[in-house]
Every structure is written in C-alpha cells, then in structure tokens.
C-alpha cells in the first residue's frame, strides 16, 4: 500500500509552477522525510496530499488510492501544518473538544493522558502556550485521531533544540505504538537523519531522489583520491557529484550494488544520508528514483513517468 | 498516464460522515461573541427606541384622543406633534441605516477571513468533517440568527413608527429610510449584509480589508436599491393633480406646458408679475413685492397653463414592495452563501 501516490502532479500559482511532473509513491510503514531547499515545493506537495490544494494537473491519491481530500482520505490522515495553527483563543480542553467533534474517531483519554505527561494545562488558552507546547498540542490532537497517515509540514521550524528532540521522540513513540505511517518535511536534513527510513528529495518543483534510506546508502559510495586522476576515473563510474579540495577529489558515485576494484591511491567510504542528500542537491540534474513500489501489484507504470 | 486503481468501495461506502449536530457546539463556542455583538448592537438601538418612543406614544395619546377627529383643532394638534417628533425620528432611522452594514462587516466578514488570516483553515479543513459542510454548518445557523434578530427588531420599529404614521406624516412607509426598517425588509437586509460579509471574507482572506469590502459592497447595493431599483418594483403612477395622495412616495415631479417640459426660466418668467421666484420646480420664494393675498404658486402656475406631473408610488403598495424586496434579497443571500461554500470547496490556497 502506498500512503501517498502522485502521477504527473503539478500545481501552478499564477505563472509559476510550484510543482511539476511530480511522480511519487511512498509505501506504507515508513517515516518518510521530504527534504529540499526552501521553495522547492515541499509544502505544495503536502497541501496537495492532504487535500488543501487542488492540483493544476495530474493526480494525487493517499492511503491506497483514495483521492486526496475525499471524506475517506480526510478520515485517515492527520495533518499538522507549518507553525501548527490552532485557535489561539480556545483553551486546550476546547481544542480537544473541537477536534473530537470534527472527527469520527478521537481518543480523548489518550490525548488527556499525553497532555498530562507533557504538563500542558487543560484550561490554558492555546495562544498562551509556548511554541514547543503548541507543537506538542497539535501533534497530540493529530495522534488522538488515530490516523493511518500522519503528515507533518516543517514541524520543528519554530522549536528550540530541546523541543525538537521531544517532538521527534513523540512521533517515534507513536510509530512504535501503532501502525501509523509518517510523512514529514523539513529543510534541515540533520534532524531527520535519526528518524527517517525513507527519503524523498525534492528540488525546484520535482522529485529528484526517492527511496528507502538503507537502499540509498547501500547503493552509493564516496571515493576519495588524487584530483589529477579524478576525471579519467570518473568516466567509468556513475558519478553523482564530484568535489575537489586541493589535491584530493571526492566522488559520490552510484554503485547500484556493483562494487568494482578501487584503483591504487583511491579509498572507498560509505556515505552518510546528509552527504548523499547534499550531493544530489548540488546536482539538480542527477536523479535516483527506484522503480515504482506499488505494493498492490497494479499495472506497471510507464518508465517515463518516473524518470522525467 | 496510468489509470488509478480503484478504492475499496465497500470500506469507504460504510464511512458515514460526521453528523451535522457535532458542529453545534463549535459554531456556538467560536461565534458566541459575534452573536453577542449583534444582540448588543440591536439591544442598544432597541433601548434608544424605547426611551424616546414611550414619551412620543404618550404625546400621541393626546393627539389621537382629540375630538371631533378631523377638526381644525385636532389637525393642528397632529401637525404640532409631527413638528416636535418627526425630525428626530427621521434622524434616528437615518442613523439606523448602518445597522445591517455593521452586522455584515463585524459578524459576517471575519467569519472565514479570520480562518485564512490566522492559518487555522489548514487545521479545520483537514479534519474528518469536511470543509464545505463545515462552512455551511457555521454560516447557516448564524444567518438564521441574524435574520431572526432583524425580524424581532422590526417589530419594535413598527411600534415606534405608529404615532408618526398615525398623525399623517407626509413620509409614508415607502419612504426610503423607513421602508427598509419595516416589514420583512430589515431581516432581509441584515441577512444579505451578513452573506456579503461572509463572501467578502473568503474572497479577500483578511479581516480588515474584508470589513471594508463588505461596507463598500453593502453601501453600493443599498444605494442602488433605494435610489434606482425600488421605484420600479411596479410601474409608478403619474398624476397631474396637485394634491398627491397622503403618505405616497413621490419619486419625481415636473412642470409641463403645452406637452413639453417647462424650464425653471420659463416658470420664473411666468411668476415675475407676482414677484415669486422658483428656487427649484418645487420650492418657491416670494419676493418683497409679492401681493399679500397671493396664495399658492402651484395653483397660480396651473391657472397659467402649466401642468405638474407627479410620479409616485402609493402607500398601498407597501406590502407587495416588501415581499418583492424581501424575496430578491433572500434569493441573493442564498446565492452568496452558496458561492461562499463553493469557493471554500473549490478554490483553496
């Protein structure tokens, strides 16, 4: 099952395409990180997935083919938008009551217990909570809906480091507890490295890299050697990005499982997720997209859709 | 493009929507202040009507008790009563004209604009209830509440106006600033102002600009209706008689001579022998040389071959006009609310 599936998805604001030709299939059971520079189209993609925005072209479905924004889709997805918008004048208890009334499921005792643990007073106005507490309240409200997919847009943008840590711990605890998939976006990769097991790299309105983190790390290597030999060596390899520092050259190469002999004077290292992401972000032309991971074994996707 | 695989229809078909009644508490909790504002505004206006209306009713008691009715003494009493109270009533109703606009601007416009301004629409619209139903569940009860409040206030205005109409004021119930506070018109205007405000909120998406847009749109609609539209609900009557039926709504008057419109110059030339000047075709000013016995310049002009044509709506058309205005304002309001819900559903972010 795919939690988010996009085909030829595009969204235009005025004359600017925020997202175009986006093809994506995020399988269930992951914590998927949507990473890219500011303005790359992360928020647009998430807004399309949760049904806040209608696509200009293409389609996006969620939770096994449900049209984004349909009643069935809304029922299964909980979304925490950027800056965790809440009704600032309502008390915490009122926010719980409001959310319970707007949904078919709402686990009141879970929400109350979690807010109790966090020390968030029920009678305080949402607007009077700290940034971290507001984010935690928004997350609690989302999790109490018992969603099958939790979508978080830049959830940590306004949090201090301690609050970030607590927030991500709460997300991970929810993932460990139940069968909820998570898609979260951030322009800060470092804070996702520990938690994400699926990476979607999005640059200038289209998906550049998508895949399970383990697969991506296993299929890439960093080769370090003399800069003078880099060009001739690189011709035989699938180089994503080459950086030269003095006499040394660092090549990020895609091995795709094939591991050839390393020439004398060269060293091979495993790659970190951050290195990998940065290398691709520096080379917007390069792409690493897996074959379609359509768990339902549906009709094969045309290749062009995936390698645009 | 590859076709999408079908959704499990059985599972989703069993998905019953969140019941409408769940929105009751939310609408009440989030808009009780706006409702209180509407009640407070109308309450202050009602208090003013009561405080000034009770002495007026007392004074009118003496006028209506005058016997024999219709005698010169009683007529004089009625005229004195109107001289005392009618100007104040006119000013009061004139000031009250802004009430529907205030309700549209401060109860209607922020309803959705605030959701956009604070970003909370991104929270509410992604809940299971569904945003189009959410919008309707908020707008409909508030619209009904506003209309009911308007209807209740009309009852008080009708009571307040009784002595003025009873004493035979020349401004009948069709007079522009009275008509829209009587009958069903006030409820309809308040509903329309509210609907304009809500739509402005979803179009402009900012509270303060939406408030100004609402005021402008309402003022335009009220102006066009009062000045141009209302007089055409039925074809106006035209009379050449100088005595127009009491309490009729005079739309225009003009002098004619030999079938052609008479200019002010022509009229003044005719009036020169008696030293009376027509400032406007309806307003005459006698000069120092005007004969003391000179009576009515209107009669004088008629004697000299002029015809005064008066276009008017008789007061007997009050209720048909009320239903026409109430009807189209209700239709307009429903249309605006439907457009708002459609915009919430379609034109997101």
Keywords:
heterodimer; A: 308 residues; alpha/beta; Rossmann fold; 2 domains; six-stranded mixed sheet; elongated; disordered C terminus; B: 349 residues; alpha+beta; four-stranded antiparallel sheet
Concise structural overview:
The complex is a heterodimer of chains A (308) and B (349). Chain A has 308 residues and is α/β, with parallel strands linked by helices.
Q: How would you characterize the largest beta sheet of chain A?
A: 6 strands, mixed
CATH architecture of the largest domain in chain A: 3-Layer(aba) Sandwich
Biggest chain contact: A-B, 47 and 36 residues
Structural class from helices and strands of chain B?
alpha+beta
Radius of gyration of chain B: 27 Å
CATH class of the largest domain in chain A, named: Alpha Beta
Mean pLDDT of chain A: 86
Q: What's the overall average pLDDT of chain B, rounded?
A: 91
CATH homologous superfamily identity of the largest domain in chain A: P-loop containing nucleotide triphosphate hydrolases
Give the H and E element order of chain B. Answer: HHHHHHHHHEEEHEEHEH
Tell me how many strands of chain A there are: 14
Instruction: Name the strands of the widest sheet of chain A in spatial order.
Output: 6-7-8-3-9-10
* Category by helix and strand content of chain A: alpha/beta
- Integer-rounded radius of gyration of chain A: 21 Å
Number of helices of chain A: 10
Strand percent estimate of chain A: 25-35%
């Amino acid at each position: 099952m795919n939690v988010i599936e996009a085909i030829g998805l595009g969204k235009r604001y005025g004359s600017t395409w925020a997202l175009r030709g986006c093809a994506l299939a995020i399988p269930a059971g992951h914590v998927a990180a949507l990473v890219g520079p500011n303005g790359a189209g992360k928020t647009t993609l998430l807004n399309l997935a949760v049904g806040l925005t209608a696509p200009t072209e293409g389609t996006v479905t969620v939770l096994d083919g449900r049209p984004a924004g349909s009643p069935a889709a809304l029922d299964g997805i909980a979304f925490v938008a950027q800056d965790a918008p809440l009704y600032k004048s309502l008390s915490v208890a009122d926010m719980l009551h409001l959310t319970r009334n707007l949904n078919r499921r709402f686990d009141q005792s879970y929400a109350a217990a979690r807010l109790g643990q966090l020390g968030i007073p029920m009678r305080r106005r949402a607007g009077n909570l700290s940034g971290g507490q507001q984010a935690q309240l928004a997350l609690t409200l989302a999790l109490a809906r018992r969603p099958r997919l939790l979508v978080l847009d830049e959830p940590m943008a306004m949090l201090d480091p301690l609050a970030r840590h607590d927030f991500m711990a709460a997300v991970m605890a929810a993932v460990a507890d139940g069968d909820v998939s998570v898609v979260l976006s951030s322009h800060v990769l470092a804070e996702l490295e520990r938690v994400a097991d699926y990476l979607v790299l999005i640059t200038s309105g289209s998906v550049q890299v998508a895949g399970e983190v383990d697969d991506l790390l296993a299929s890439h290597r960093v080769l370090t050697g003399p800069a003078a030999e880099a060009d001739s060596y690189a011709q035989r390899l699938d180089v994503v990005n080459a950086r030269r520092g003095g006499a040394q050259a660092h090549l990020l190469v895609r091995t795709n499982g094939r591991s050839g002999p390393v020439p004398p004077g060269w060293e091979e290292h495993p790659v970190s997720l951050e290195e990998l992401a940065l290398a691709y972000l520096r080379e917007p032309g390069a792409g690493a997209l897996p074959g379609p991971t359509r768990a339902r074994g549906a009709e094969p996707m045309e290749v062009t859709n995936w390698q645009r | 493009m590859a076709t999408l695989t079908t959704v499990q229809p059985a599972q989703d078909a069993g998905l019953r929507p969140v019941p409408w009644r769940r929105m009751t508490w939310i609408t009440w909790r989030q808009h009780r202040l706006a409702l209180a504002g509407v009640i407070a505004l109308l309450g202050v206006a009602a208090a003013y009507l009561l405080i000034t209306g009770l002495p007026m009713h007392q004074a009118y008691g003496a006028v209506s008790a005058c016997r024999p009715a219709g005698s010169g003494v009683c007529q004089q009493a009625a005229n004195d009563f109107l001289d005392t109270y009618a100007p104040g009533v006119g000013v009061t109703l004139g000031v009250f004209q802004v009430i529907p606009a205030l309700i549209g601007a401060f109860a209607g416009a922020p309803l959705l604009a605030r959701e956009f301004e604070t970003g909370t629409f991104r929270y509410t619209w992604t809940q299971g209830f569904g945003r189009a139903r959410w919008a309707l569940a908020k707008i409909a009860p508030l619209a009904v509440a506003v209309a009911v409040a308007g209807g209740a206030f009309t009852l008080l205005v009708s009571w307040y106006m009784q002595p003025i109409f009873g004493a035979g004021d020349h401004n009948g119930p069709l007079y522009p600033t009275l008509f829209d506070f009587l009958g069903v018109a006030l409820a309809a205007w308040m509903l329309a102002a509210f609907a304009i405000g809500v739509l402005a909120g979803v179009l402009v998406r900012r509270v303060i600009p939406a408030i100004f847009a609402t005021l402008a749109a309402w003022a335009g609609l009220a102006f066009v209706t009062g000045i141009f539209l209302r007089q055409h609900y039925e074809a106006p009557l035209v009379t050449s008689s100088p005595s127009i039926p009491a309490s009729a709504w005079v739309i225009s008057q003009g002098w004619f001579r030999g079938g052609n419109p008479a200019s002010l110059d022509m009229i003044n030339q005719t009036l020169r022998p008696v030293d009376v000047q027509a400032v406007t075709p309806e307003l005459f000013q006698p000069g120092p040389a005007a004969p003391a016995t000179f009576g009515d310049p209107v009669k004088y002009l008629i004697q000299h071959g002029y015809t005064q044509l008066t276009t008017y709506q008789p007061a007997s058309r009050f209720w048909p006009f009320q239903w026409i205005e109430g009807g189209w304002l209700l239709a307009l309001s429903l249309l605006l609310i439907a457009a708002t819900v459609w915009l919430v559903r379609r034109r997101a972010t």
